[in-house]
Prior knowledge:
The structure holds two protein chains of two kinds. Chain A is of the alpha/beta class. Chain A is built from twelve helices and 14 strands. In chain A, the strands form three sheets. In chain A, strands 3-2-4-5-7-6-12 form a seven-stranded mixed β-sheet, sandwiched between helices. Chain B has one domain: Thiamin diphosphate (ThDP)-binding fold, Pyr/PP domains (Rossmann fold), CATH 3.40.50.
Amino acid sequence: MARLSYLDAGRAALAEELARDPLVWAIGEDLGRGGVFGQYRGLTETFGPDRVSDAPISEAAILGAAVGAAMTGTRPVVEMRFSDFALCAVDELVNQAAKARFMFGGQARVPLVVREPIGMWRSSAAQHSQSLESWYAHIPGLVVACPATPADNKGMLKAAIRCDDPVVYMEHKNLWGLEDEVPDDPDYLVPFGEARIVRGGGDATIVSWSAQVHVAAAAAEALAGQGIEAEVIDLRSIWPWDKERVLASVARTGRLLVTHEAVAVAGFGAEIAATVAERLGRDLKTPVRRLGAPRAPVGYAPPVEDAVRVSRDAIVAAVTEMMR
Amino acid sequence: MMHRIRALEEVALRGLADKVVLGAIHPSIGQEAVPVGVMGHMSADDLLLSTHRGHGHTLAKGASATAMMHELLGRVGGNCGGKGGSMHIADFEVGMLGANGVVGANIVIAAGAAHAIKLRRENRMVACFFGDGAINRGPFLEGLNWAAVFRLPVLFVCEDNGYSATTRTATMTAGAGPAARARAIGVPAVEVDGNDVLAVDAAAAELIGAIRAGDGPRFLHARTYRITGHTGADPATYRPAGEVEAQAHNDPIGRARDTLLAAGVAAAEVDAVRAAALAEMEAAYGSARAAPYPPADQAFVDVQDIGSPAVEAY
Ligand SMILES: Cc1ncc(C[n+]2csc(CCOP(=O)(O)OP(=O)(O)O)c2C)c(N)n1
Ligand SMILES: [Mg+2]
């Protein structure tokens, strides 16, 4: 174990995989200087500019070239800088990467990782703050990962690089500095579709992912002070998502709250709520609840930005109400 | 080869009329000299990225006509098991990495395939075909710039048939055209009469020689003409009267025939090539018609390993 930040855990994961497999390489704008957030710092120096490469400001080409390079036997990791900019490469991801294997009748594999940092990061405003994970959960062919902890950012990025499917890998910008213990086993892999129980509890189940997990955990802490024991589940990946663990928990608690930073309307919380309602509806003690952002762009001024955050207090209030 | 492409598409058009070719097909009748002239300089190791109008590219790259016909009919035995159809045909065995339903999307993919070749220090190249309409999409700029910046082994081939679907491309394209745009990005470009198979062959030889010498990407602008409509179902009434007729003398197959006859080749010999091509495609068509559709459970195969719908679709 080593104490690492979320950012350094991701950097270590990539460095280990670059060292392990000569077919792994990374490309994106500004990587030669460490990338916009420093998550590539030192890697070009260690592995050379061919393997950790600068790219032109050509999101479609970064992702499209990765598709071609992945089909030609390499394992590219592409950096899109912000999930907002990855929208310039939606054709390459949705129509090309996600479809090639199927439409070519199994002839192609597209083992690429698309790193697209998500989330609100103080005053980044409307075009640098979005959480778009549910868009990609909707697309057959893609795996969608949203790590919440340093250990997961290491184990999931390594798993993503070793995976033969295209993986949309969404790190949360507000977590870069978060520190925790991270395993240093070079084969530490976190499998997709296995949720993590952040905290046990028998009164209600709170499901979340990415940075919102920490808000949910803080809410559970506050609820415990009121004598309410909420179980907090970090999904880690939303496709695949760990239905079994969620259903087992809700079967026990009889109450489900899903919370995410993304807009609530058509967010992935809706999928979870619907699944739980379909499978366990009759046994629920109270109707399922969702807490996501209102359907509004993210604002620049702090009060405007905060108005679309799902706060700890909002979660506490919702669960308290569900207990009545 | 030009006869084989022509015959494959003539039979495929009949298949459309017979309602056994299921989706849209985009014939390249009249454009056959371009892929034939280029692909003569490529081996099975080299890679190809193609377009919606890709039957000629695919056949010239070495794919089996029988497998292609099965694919066009959506049958077992197709190159993609009947799951791709005309617009997603691919044959990785012969280095054909896919047609594409999205105009221009293959340009950046081709750059990436060439990037992988460079990273792996292999001695191969990539050819990327696209139409005159595709040069107005962003990936054209992004892909050419990428290939030039990284000095990648790609030949970009613009098959300029004058039309973007039903629109005269010239009415919607500013500037001096595809070659000028390529040169502006630093990719050396050659313009050629794309209906003269010997001229295409010679131009491709020169450009591919430079690519194989490690000089980076090259661009071929081939002027040609689409004799049919945009799709097999398009009567192309938007074309001015007499335009197609005026092109009659310009058919690449007719021109090659004239060249051969002038060189002393017997007409019967040339006709025999055409007859053999037709017989081959008729047999392929018969084989495809007799083959079954893939079973419904193929809908869940080859989607993804993790989170596969074969395990759980919801
Ligand atoms: C991104 C995109 N936009 C529009 C279309 C619809 N479309 C299919 S083919 C075509 C015309 C393409 O013209 P060109 O690139 O010259 O190729 P050609 O059909 O002439 O071979 C259009 C507009 C598409 N397939 N993809
Ligand atoms: Mg055209």
